[in-house]
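Hi R.,

Here's the chain you asked about this morning:
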Amino acid sequence: MATSSSTASGSGPKDRDPPPVFDGDPQMFKQFERDVSLWQWESDIPKNKHAVKILRCLTGSARAAADEVPLEKIKSEAGVEAILDKLREHYQPHFGVHDAPSL
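And here is the predicted structure, written out as tokens:
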């Protein structure tokens, strides 16, 4: 008996690996950025849907900050970078001079 998670081969992009989760812990932001980059590279999901997927995996202060990004930007191929830019801006006070992610 087939389960709802099984899909026929060739039926479209598969979403087996969800995007990384981020709860807003500033110490984990650099790792989150790296994980997002890796997820994007291996994902078969259309690029204009990446930001929506990532937004749904954010919680706490990270979600609150990302919710400031306009929906039209989130629904575009530039959405992931817009969310990451907003998070960098939000967490910048938590980074030391040597800890700041490259912009």
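One quick note: The CA atoms of residues 19 and 53 lie 7 Å apart.

Cheers,
M.
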